[in-house]
């Protein structure tokens, strides 16, 4: 049994290690002289979302629109645009949908605070429950009191052994 | 000892409220179309552009053609089956006097687009030819067909994704278009 688990673990680890970022599209056509610009380009196309697709970055999608947006990103980066400038450009046209990091706004607050709220609620429930249990005094009936006394005295007897 | 009782209703009500909220939220999600995005351009002026006419490459238009009166801007292409489906209805609207401008979006060829208009009818007052889709990106177009409602000041008021049909026109677009037309006529045909 243990051998099997160890084998399974090893296989899993090996497969995790072999997973690398694979692109559905050919990015060879985007050539850069400046490695910083290339890094920025790669970062941007992975964080910008393809508006045509429900959940793919423009790096990942082979939709024609994703290619157009990659081309535009490439042009802008080559012309020296900053990351924020490219993101602003896309958000101005396609809305917050176009960027995988939604801004903190009233309408997106639940995204940002939701997980924290869930954890806090859980913690609160645990604290309240523990405190409740601590404060509850246990009322013993006369019969239970007698049993307790008997147990305690027998326990003392054992201590003397 | 009295303290836990005081909050007992809260302990009972909170999960119930959370459950109801989640139910409503998920139920709404069930009936919403995630592919329909609201335009980031609503309330903003149309982007600047310079595009050739679809029939005559030597004629160029700027964003000025989208100013001056309420109108629809319809994004279409011959490669788009839904555009074919809505084309007959656009013809009908044009006959009723609705002012429609076309934006041909990345079509296979100019000849193919012109051929389509010649055979299926041309509901457009004028047609912009966006060969590479650059202007469409400025409009936030992510598919075809899309239809923008533009007011007399050249501001985008609404964007409809998908085909314009009887239902969409009479329930969504027509009331807004009529309201804009009423404002426009009240101002004496001036924007």
Descriptive account of the structure:
The complex is a heterodimer of chains A (161) and B (191). Chain A is an all-alpha fold and 161 residues long. Chain A has 2 domains: 22-98, Helicase, Ruva Protein, domain 3 (Orthogonal Bundle), CATH 1.10.8.640; 109-159, no CATH class. Chain A is built from 6 helices and no strands. In chain A, α2 (35-47) runs antiparallel to α3 (64-78). Chain B is built from 6 helices and 7 strands, in the order ααβββαβαβαββα. In chain B, the strands form 2 sheets. Chain B has a 5-stranded mixed beta sheet. In chain B, β4, α4 and β5 (126-130) form a beta-alpha-beta unit. The mean pLDDT of chain B is 91. Chain A binds chain B through residues 51-52, 54, 64-65, 68-69, 72, 91-95, 97, 132, 135, and chain B through 1, 4, 34-35, 37-41, 106, 132-133, 137-140, 142-143.
Uncertain segments of chain B are: none
Q: Write the H/E string of chain A, N to C.
A: HHHHHH
Average pLDDT across residues of chain B? 91
Number of domains of chain A: 2
What sort of overall outline of chain A do the alpha carbons produce when their principal axes are compared?
elongated
């Amino acid at each position: 049994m243990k051998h099997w688990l160890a084998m399974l673990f090893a296989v899993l680890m090996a497969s995790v290690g072999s997973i690398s970022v694979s692109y559905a599209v050919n990015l060879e056509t985007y050539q850069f002289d400046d490695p910083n610009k290339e890094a920025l380009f790669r970062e941007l196309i992975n964080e910008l979302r393809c508006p045509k697709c429900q959940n793919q970055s423009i790096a990942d999608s082979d939709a024609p629109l994703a290619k157009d947006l990659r081309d535009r990103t490439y042009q802008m980066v080559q012309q020296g645009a900053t990351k924020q400038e490219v993101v602003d450009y896309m958000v101005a046209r396609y809305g917050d949908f176009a960027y995988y990091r939604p801004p903190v706004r009233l309408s997106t607050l639940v995204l940002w605070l939701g997980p924290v709220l869930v954890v806090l609620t859980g913690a609160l429930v645990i604290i309240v429950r523990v405190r409740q249990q601590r404060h509850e005094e246990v009322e013993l009936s006369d019969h239970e009191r007698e049993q307790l006394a008997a147990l305690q005295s027998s326990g003392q007897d054992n201590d003397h052994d | 000892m009295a303290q836990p009782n005081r909050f007992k209703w809260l302990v009972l009500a909170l999960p119930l409220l959370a459950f109801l909220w989640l139910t409503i939220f998920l139920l709404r999600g069930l009936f919403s179309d995630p592919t329909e995005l609201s335009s980031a351009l609503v309330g903003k002026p149309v982007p600047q552009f310079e595009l050739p006419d679809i029939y005559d490459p030597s004629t160029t238009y700027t964003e000025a053609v989208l100013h001056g009166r309420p109108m629809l801007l319809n994004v279409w292409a011959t490669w788009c089956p839904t555009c074919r489906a809505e084309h007959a209805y656009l013809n009908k609207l044009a006959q009723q006097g609705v002012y429609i401008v076309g934006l041909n979006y990345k079509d296979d060829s100019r000849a193919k687009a012109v051929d389509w208009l010649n055979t299926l009818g041309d509901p457009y007052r004028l047609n912009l030819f966006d060969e590479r889709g650059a202007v469409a990106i400025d409009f936030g177009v992510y598919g075809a067909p899309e239809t923008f409602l533009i007011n007399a000041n050249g501001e985008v008021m609404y964007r409809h994704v998908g085909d314009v049909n009887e239902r969409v026109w009479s329930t969504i677009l027509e009331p807004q278009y009529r309201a804009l037309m009423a404002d426009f006529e009240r101002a004496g045909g001036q924007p």
